[in-house]
Structure formats: C-alpha cells, structure tokens
Amino acid sequence: MERELKYIDMVEQPISMHPKKFALWLFMVTVVMVFAGLTSAYIVRQSEGNWLEYELPNIFWATTGMVVLSSIALHWAYYSAKKDNLINLKVGMILTVLLGIGFLVGQWYSWVALVDEQVFFVGNPSGSFLYVFTGLHGAHLISGVIFLIIVLISTFRLKVHSRAMDTMEMATTYWHFLGGLWIYLFMFLLLNH
Amino acid sequence: MATASAAHHDTAHDHHDHEHHDNFITKYIFSQDHKMIGKQFLVTGIFWALIGGFLSVLFRLQLGFPDLSLEFLRPLLGGWIDETGKLDPTFYLALVTMHGTIMVFFVLTAGLSGTFSNFLIPLQIGARDMASGFMNMLSYWFFFISGVIMFISLFIKTGPAGGGWVIYPPLSALEQAIPGSGLGMTLWLVAMVFFIASSLMGGINYITTIINLRTKGMSFSRLPLTIWAFFLTAVIGLLSFPVLFGAALLLVFDRSFGTSFYLSDIYIAGEALPNTGGSPVLFQHLFWFLGHPEVYIVLLPALGITSEVIATNSRKPIFGYKAMIISMLGITILSFIVWAHHMFVSGMNPFLGSIFMFLTLIIAVPSAVKVFNYLTTLWRGNLVFTPAMLFSIGLVSFFISGGLTGIFLGNSAIDIQLHDTYFVVAHFHLVMGSASFFGMVAGVYHWFPKMFGRMMDAKLGYVHFWLTFIGVYLVFFPMHYIGIAGFPRRYYNWTNFAFTDMYTDLNMFVSAAAIITFASQFIFLFNFFYSMFRGRKATQNPWRSNTLEWTTPVEPGHGNWPGEIPTVYRWPYDYSKPGAADDFIPQTVPLSQTPESNLPHEQEMVKLELEIMKEEAEVLVANESKH
C-alpha cells in the first residue's frame, strides 16, 4: 500500500487549482508587496526624525466598520449562492456594493478631515504617506467594487448559483483581501503615527 | 472558459483537435499562442539589444578616443554633437543611462525571461499553452508599449533620462538638475510602469502554469532545471517589482505633485526649494530592494538554460540535480536580504553594513555549488561542442571570473574604495551582463530548431562564439585595472586628472575591443534571420535530448501535441545510463520498457507502472466509446 501511494504520488496528475483563482492569489501577493514596501518606507522615514505628528481622522473608525460589514454581507451572499438562495444572494451583493461605495465616500471625507487639520498631500512626508496609503488602497478598492458590480449583474442574469461559483468565489476572496488590507493599514497607522 | 478547459486538458474531451484558422493578425500580431509570444519577445529583445549595444559603442568612442572628432555622427545625433565635433556631455549621461536601462530591463529581463519562459514552460512541462493566453498576450503588448515610450524618449529635444539606470533622486526628481530629468525622466517612469505591469502579468502566468498545468507524472522532482529557474525567476519578479512600483510612484509624486518623499533642504542657484523632510536614502533602499533581486531575475534563467544545454551536450546527467534546485532556492531567498550592499557608501551604520556584508558573502556558497556542478557535469562527459554548448561553457567562465570580484565588492571595507569605479563596471558586466547574455544566446542556438523548424549554421555560430567570448574578456578584463587605478564610472572624460594619462591606451584598447565585439553580433543576426528561412531543416530531436519539447512535431502547432499529451515516467537527465541501448532516454519512455538500464528501486516500480497503465488504457477506451 505504501509503495503504491509512493508511486501514485509520482505519476498522478499533480495537485492543481483553478488557474484563474490561483492567478488572483498571485496578484494579491503583488499588492501585499506594494504595501509592504510602502509601509516599510514609512517606518524607515519616520525613524529619521522631522516627522509631523497629527491626529488620524476619526472617520477611519466608521469606514473600518463599513468594510467589515461589507465583508460579512458578501460572505452571507456567498453562502446564499451556495445554497441557491438567489434572493438573499442579490440582497447580500447589493448591500456589499453599497457598503463598498460608502467606504470610498468615507475615505474621501477622511481627506477632507485631514485638510481641515492642515495636513496636506504636499508637505511633510508623514502626511503625504497617509494620502498615498489611502489613495492607493482606494484605487484597489474601486477595482474591487467594479468586480462586485460585474458579479452583481451576473446574479441578475442567474449566472451565479451553487454550480457556478467561480467568479463569486474570486470576488469574495478579493474583497476580503481588500478589507483585510485596510485593517492592516489602519492598525499600522494607529501603532506608528 | 479556455483556461478552465486547458486545466482539464487530458480529459477525454479535447478541444485542440479542431483545426484553427488564423489570419495574419491573430497568428503573428495579437497571438495568444505561447510559442508566438515567445518569438515576439525574442525579436523585440534582439532589436533592443542592438540599440543598447549601439549606445555603448557611442560612449566607448568618447571614452577611448576623447580627442576624436565625432562629426561623422552628426547625421544621426544632430545637435548632440557640438560645433567642435564633440559629444554633448549631458547626452553622454543619457547614453549610459539608457544603455543600462535597456540592457537590464528590455534585453535581459523581457528578452530572456519573456522569450524562454513563454516558449519553454508549456513545452517542457507538457501543457497545451499558458494558463491564460490572453494575459500572456497583454504581457507582450504592455512590454511593447513600454518599449515604444522608451524609444520615443531617445529622440526628444531634452534627451532621454540621464540620471543613471538607478535614477537616484534628487538628480532624477528635479527638472532643474540636468536636461535628462525633464520629459525624458517622465517618459522613463511611464515606460517602467508599463514594463512592471508586463513583468507581473508574465510572472503570474509562469507560476500558475508551472504549478497547475504540468502533465501526468511531471512532479516537481522531474522538472527540467530550466523550468525550476524560470519558476524561481518569476517568484522573485513577483515579489520585487511591486516594490519598484511603490518607489517609482513616490518619485512621480515628488516630481509632478510637489511632495517631499525623497527631497529635503535643497538649494538651487541660492534659492531654497520648498521641499522639506524627505530622504534620498529611502529611495535607494526601495530601489535596491528590487534592484538586487533584479540581478537574479536576469541571471537565473540563463543558469537554467545552461544546466539543460550542458547536461544534453555532455551526454551525462546533470551533477547534483537536487543541489542545483536547493542552490537556486537559496539564491532566491538570499537575493532579498542583501540589497544594502549597493549602499555601503550612503552613510549607513557600519554595523548594519557588516550584517549585509555577511549575508552577501553567503551567496557565494550556492553560486559556487552551481559552478561546481557545471564543471563536474562537464568532467569526463562525451562533450558535443555545439554553439549552444560553447556559449554555455562561456557563461560558466564569466560566472567564475565575474563572481570572484563579487566577493571583493561584497566586503564593505574594499567596496568603499572601489565603489562607483570601473572595477564595479567590470564585475557586473561579466557576472550579470555577459553571463546572462551568453545564456540567452545559448538558448537561441539550442531551441532555434524548435522555434523555427530549421537549424542555425554551426560554423557561423563558432565564429560568433569565439569573437564574442574573446571580445568580452578584452573589453571587461582591463576595466578591473582601470577601476583599481581609481577611474570613476559615468564620467564624461578624465583628461583633467594627471593619473589617467598612463591608461589612455588601455581605454582606447577597450573601446576598440567593444566595437569589434559589437560588430561580431551581426554574424549572429545574419545567421538568425537567414536560418529562419533558408536554414537546414531540423529533425524532431536534433540534440538527442530527453525533455518533452522534443516529442512534439518539428513545428508544433497550436496545442503543441497533435494527440494526447505525453505522460512522464522519469527525470529529464537519463543520459548515458549504464546498460541502455542509446545514450539518452526521453522522459516519456516508461521504466517498464527499459529493464536493461533500470536501477534497483526503479525496477520495483515497474509492476505498479504496468498496472496503472493498463487501468488508464481501459479508461481511455471507455471514454472513446462515449463519443
């Protein structure tokens, strides 16, 4: 038996994943590396002194809440799709998209709050970094919202159900990742500003 | 869902049996076939190599013959030649910058990885095509757009980027600094954004394909070393290019939006700039976090190609297959934690410098293991000196001679003396530039029959090899002496320094050798294009090699194998196996067919192999009858 297992291990088709899902994971790795690079740059620059101190806008707490809620809503939609509960799926997807757009609007108001605090994009790098983090994350989030809207349209065309879950799964993965990325950035800023 | 069906390519339903009707545009321009995309990368890479090489000839003329009138270049360079027939000094800076950028990124990254990863991965792992043909096509066209933008920047009025290929701010960030930091730098950055996107799309595809689309039996321990090298190269690119993107993004903000990430306390003509609080060293950290792994992005594919070519043409299994893989893994990991050895003179903490020095010197270990394995593979082999083999041996030679100076430069105490001298130029042109270039050329000679169904002319190949091999040493070896003597790089001329007088002849010699070496590349060029149409027709397996690509038809069509994809039963290096009738056993030959040469543990597997093959045959028959 053991011998057989060894043989099968060598000759069977190697473990393989849906290529598009796999490529999505690799894409997320590149996004992680961009932000790992930028947040490291933040720490290196901060340790050199001449660093403007300011309060983080409070609206970040609200947007963080929204992004968490949107992930919960999306996961509910995902389970509904798995169970072919198409009404809940649509409700969940619409909720997610709305919360996603709400998050983006909230991030925009965080910039307004920063300007009110006299922290500008042009000036001490400590402020510029915050704009770059939120802006670049926002750009990725816009891509996520577009992806969600595409999935939402296909739910209305009845193309998402328990036997056609690939795009739904990818959208869920990507959206959770973007939410997690924001939580990382927010925690990072809370600890290092 | 082409990719989904490609994933299940060896199920009974096989969509590739249908005849494909390609018109000129889908076949040669917007092709999604990995072989055509590989060839597109190759031809584009050759085009850029010619431009990059030509730029180096221009600045070598200036360096070797500082008093020469370059009036004869006026039809080409126009205003960059001044009234006295001299090369414009700022254009000289642009020449070295563009030479570096073009050679590192466009030739040795896109031209090398792009060509051979695309061409060989599906053929050697037994896949119909890449995981996503469309993304693969996009990868090429992003590279093409990037090239067009970079090419345009060569012709603008203020000249292309001139701050060195490392584009350190503040030089690159301030338009007032040099003419090249104006529009030329902007175009450089835009071109690099497209280039990064292209590399990432390519890399994602390579990794996905290698992990998910291997044929039956092709376990990781049976992959040819080329595939291992392409895989690890793609991993390095995937992890390091995003950081360059981050660095470039901040530089764009500094240049165009007035932020101060890299700029602080700068006075120009007595006027203080508003920027405050930035750190130029921060850019160096971010840049070299890509910049150092980039060296291995360039080199690893060449090493992989060499492994394959040397094993095939020594008619011997590669020595230390696992050691090769572990060395490449070691190089991959180490490449990310040594970047600051490029910054020993940036004022870094000497203790931190020692840590980076220590880590840098560790890279010598896996590199030496690889060299040892190449030499032991060659040792007492039945060497077949094809042009590809000669170029591979040339690579090993450069890897040794250039690698040794790496040990010098890795020591911060010596590096502080030799930093930014011609010693460094000699070092990296041998170990990274010439070695990778030789790997690329070896690959072209070796896989030309698979690409175009014809053979390249071997005699011209020999002439090309000897001229290039000797030429490269004549160009770069004297640079060590010039560097130790204290010649700084990127200087327009040295006539102001008395100590340089005694090296005038040596510089002239280097320039003459560079021109001859460049000229001899046209032998290759002629051979390449002539053989494409008029070369001797290739046989199916001209080098008597083991890997899967030689089991395809001479000119593989779309989908690579006309019928089923072959199953793999053994590793790719069964050359001169004791007892075997031939001196090579392709990967597709089952162990049960070679009882005379099986090793004891392989003999044990034969019975199981037969059982499983029988079951498979039954499944196949059952599937056939369903249709």
Quick structural summary:
The complex is a heterodimer of chains A (193) and B (627). With 193 residues, chain A is mostly helical.
Which features would summarize this protein structure in a list?
heterodimer, A: 193 residues, mainly alpha, Four Helix Bundle (Hemerythrin (Met), subunit A), 6 helices, elongated, disordered N terminus, B: 627 residues, Cytochrome C Oxidase, Chain A, 2 domains, two-stranded antiparallel ribbon, 18 helices, globular
Number of helices of chain B: 18
CATH topology of chain A, which one? Answer: Four Helix Bundle (Hemerythrin (Met), subunit A)
Name the helicity range of chain A. over 70%
Number of domains of chain A: 1
Looking at CATH, the homologous superfamily of the largest domain in chain B is Cytochrome c oxidase-like, subunit I domain
| Parts with pLDDT < 50 across at least 5 consecutive residues of chain A | 1-12
Number of helices of chain A: 6
Describe this structure in words.
With 193 residues, chain A is mainly alpha-helical. Chain A has a single domain, classed as Cytochrome c oxidase, subunit III, four-helix bundle (Four Helix Bundle (Hemerythrin (Met), subunit A)), CATH 1.20.120. Chain A contains six helices and no strands. Chain A is elongated. The termini of chain A are far apart. Chain B has 627 residues and is mainly alpha-helical. Chain B folds into two domains: 518 residues, Cytochrome C Oxidase, Chain A (Up-down Bundle), CATH 1.20.210; 58 residues. Chain B is 62% helix and 1% strand. A two-stranded antiparallel ribbon of chain B has the order 1-2. In chain B, α3 runs antiparallel to α5, α3 packs parallel to α6 and α16 packs antiparallel against α17. The longest helix of chain B has 37 residues. Chains A and B meet through α1, α2 and α5 of A and α1, α7, α8, α9 and α18 of B.
Which SSEs are present, and which pair or pack?
The complex is a heterodimer of chains A (about 190) and B (about 625).
Chain A: H1 2-11, H2 19-46, H3 59-82, H4 86-116, H5 125-156, H6 166-192
Helix pairs in contact in A: 2-5, 2-6, 3-4, 3-6, 4-5, 5-6
Chain B: H1 2-7, H2 24-29, H3 34-64, H4 74-77, H5 89-125, H6 133-153, H7 183-212, H8 225-256, E1 267-268, E2 271-272, H9 280-314, H10 321-334, H11 350-362, H12 364-378, H13 387-410, H14 412-418, H15 422-452, H16 458-484, H17 504-534, H18 600-626
Antiparallel strand pairs in B: 1-2
Helix pairs in contact in B: 3-5, 3-6, 3-17, 5-6, 5-7, 5-8, 5-9, 5-15, 6-7, 7-8, 8-9, 8-10, 9-13, 9-15, 10-12, 12-13, 13-15, 13-16, 15-16, 16-17
Pfam family, one (chain A): COX3
Keywords (chain A): Membrane, Transmembrane, Transmembrane helix
Membrane topology (chain A): Multi-pass membrane protein
